[in-house]
Amino acid sequence: MTETVGTTTANADGATATRGGQDTGLRLRRVHTTEGRHPYDEVTWEQRDVVMTNWRDGTVNFEQRGVEFPDFWSVNAVNIVTSKYFRGAVGSDKRERSLKQLIDRVVKSYVTAGVDNGYFATDADAEIFEHELTWMLLHQVFSFNSPVWFNVGTTSPQQVSACFILSVDDTMESILNWYREEGLIFKGGSGAGLNLSRIRSSKELLSSGGTASGPVSFMRGADASAGTIKSGGATRRAAKMVVLDVDHPDVEEFIETKAREEEKIRVLRDAGFDMDLGGKDITSVQYQNANNSVRVSDEFMHAVESDGEFGLRARTTGEVIETVEAKKLFRKIAKAAWECADPGLQYDDTINDWHTCPESGRITASNPCSEYLHLDNSSCNLASLNLMKFLREDGTFDAELFAKSVELVITAMDISICFADFPTESIGDTTRKFRQLGIGYANLGALLMATGHAYDSEGGRALAAAITSLMTGVAYRRSAELAGVVGAYQGYARNAEPHQRVMRKHAAANDLIRTYHANDTAIQRLATEEWRRGLEIGARNGWRNAQASVLAPTGTIGLMMDCDTTGIEPDLALVKFKKLVGGGSMQIVNQTVPRALRALGYADEQVEAIVEYISEHGHVVDAPGLRREHYEVFDCAMGERSIAPMGHVRMMAAVQPFISGAISKTVNMPESATVEDVEEIYFQGWKLGLKALAIYRDNCKVGQPLSAAKGGKATATATAEPVVEYRPVRKRLPKKRPSQTLSFTVGGAEGYLHAGSYPDDGLGEIFVKLGKQGSTLAGVMDAFSMSISVGLQYGIPLEFYVSKFQNLRFEPAGMTDDPDIRMATSVLDYLFRRLALDYLPYENRAQLGIFTAAERSAQVAADYGNGSSDVDLEGLRTSVDASPQPAADSGSGSGSGGPTSVTTVETDATGRQVGSSTELLELHLGKAADAPLCMTCGTKMRPAGSCYVCEGCGSTSGCS
């Protein structure tokens, strides 16, 4: 919905730009907004209190009360934006307190830069741009990457990029400068990648006659630097990528670096050292702060295919100094990845075949998450759209609205380069000359499920490909229009022919999309038109940007937009952890599920029954009324029916031809996968035209809390470690032990509780007498007492029993004769709350909500002395929560309003409460998930691309 007018002239820097009268620039039309009404006036605002605690120990990590947000923003989104993106010292008058302030700070900076650099035809067009951008951010339609929210409009340097690629040459000055530049980027919270292949190998001589150290040796110094900067105050690991070409003479040493260190971790762990992620002893292990990737060529992959030989070449002369068997080298790569998830692969010839600027240099490396691939010493500015915002109620995707939104976002992204600051002069120079952008999306997994598509299906891949093609087609078409207004990128003239060739390749790939439904057919038809228009305008104007799109992890910003899924990922699981307004949390079946069921033709009664089943079991297998052919629609990344590894690879292959860069994604493989399986995944990635690929085999790492899969151990080609089986030991009570006997009455039923303790404290046995001798009730209570006593002696915590049996309801129930517990919902409810009062410390009881009468009186005096009408008096009297449970989070802006099954958060087998969707999933799976704990708030993170994101506070393990 734009027009461009003006006359093209030349800038001093050689780039073309438009000069003209007052009508020169972009002419914009309103898409989401209404003339004469500001976007802020169209929503209802409310005050929220943000108090974020560490899930493990209850300490407060962040607190800001009275912040202002729209009423449809979820608690999680509000918490993350307030804690991560509001600027100013907490508690000061300068601290931002409203989403309006945050959006205005960023949007007004973009508008001012757009006006100053001649992007808009009139002031009215600038106002439309401001209102449209504000509306989309306010309604969570898209988000810029985190550095924009951190820096734009503040007194800090205006850094807008999250992804950086560095370079290093074969000189000591360059290597030391690499350490320095990387440190500056880490200090700013971003990540960087580089290729070490220019550094001569350890098999070559120095000019002085000595032997070179080789790149792996210098990796140690960089790794130590990254670890030191991380430990100097950051809350996450430094994010970095190290790449080495497959023909480098030191490639075998590079391949095995992390696998050898992983073996060292196992030995140290077994010796009693703390080797968990963040453990005090893990710092003694090297190479843990980087992702490693081998850059493979078509020549090498063909040699693997034909079982041929491959030459390793000297860096100084280019001559072959060693010949290896390609298949054996490929096996070493796969075996190392099987053992420790590194190295990944980057397919060099595929990457450079899609390179728009080969005359300015080859693409040799990527950012840490592998989605940004371009020239050395460059950066990429990211933004992602929320695909679910374009799904109509009738289940069709609004392609026209999506195209208009992409126009606006890509325009804003390009404007940011006009005022952006960069960590080094060389990165700033390259980025301003080539203006690389990375528009992408999130919520693809939710969109596919909501439209009734399985993630691993031809229909799902067709829809994903069509949307991705439309996004990149519109982005490049707008880039060509911008070139006609403010000039093509400075490096375009030199790269005009290859850039046009790559545009034709994208358009040709679009023509090959095979569509299956009216939905993807309509999207592909519009994409075809956009590519046609883009090629036509680009041939006339050139393009403003050397790169337009990537698929990033969208970790923190995905939570900001209330997305169910990140980047290109499928749903993690069908149930998730949800925070509530006013505190607390609950388990909820994903809102996408009922929408998907309706799209598949199920009636409301069937939907309700299936959702109820999913809430209880965590999966759809044997759900009442659900047809088996529809099971695949609800397949997730983890759980009872997890998507097969090749399903992830095929989805990546479907969208890769329509991405300027690459895709941040790790292909998860089961623990039972073999080295041959890893080889097949890596080989198929090359065959299917991917640019980069990484795998993670369940339980292959020690340095994070990982699982023991339900299946058997993988045995194929790697030597399995001896299995050490740990069994609980029963600690029997001595012959003479302290004990107490209590008489009680519950609802008129009289009984006795005998409790025996260990001499060094701690409950060890119970006996309950209830009912007449020889009655069924007395026999059942004897058996129950015996089982509880044995469990206590085997080490099951009393807290676990209390959490399970308190509030259990059955007769007899009612009044008791105990002044501390006036009401009980059953005999077991009374008994275990009484045991808690007698044997558990106050801190443990407080978490369970169990207090003595004196403690409750003190609470009332301290907390409710003002006579608040919101006090649950019955709950305070009895320690039983008598208040009604909320049905759903009223602050959520997502969902279709359908039936939603909600239950309070459960505890796992050890009595530990869950604090995230990943931990909730562990309850259903009965095993631990492959994710690290958040270093800020203690909850288990969830996968986001090739990184991890914390649902509680928004922290990520990589570049966000």
From TrEMBL:
For this UniProt entry, which residues form the secretion signal?
none
Q: Which domain of life is it from?
A: Bacteria
The Swiss-Prot or TrEMBL record annotates one GO molecular function as:
cobalamin binding
Residue limits of the Ribonucleotide reductase class II vitamin B12-dependent N-terminal domain?
50-140
- Key word Nucleotidyltransferase present: no
This enzyme catalyses: a 2'-deoxyribonucleoside 5'-diphosphate + [thioredoxin]-disulfide + H2O = a ribonucleoside 5'-diphosphate + [thioredoxin]-dithiol
Tell me the ranges covered by the TSCPD domain, including all copies: 734-838
Which coenzyme or cofactor does it need?
adenosylcob(III)alamin
- What residue stretches are annotated with the Ribonucleotide reductase large subunit C-terminal domain? 161-696
Question: What name does this protein carry?
Answer: Vitamin B12-dependent ribonucleotide reductase
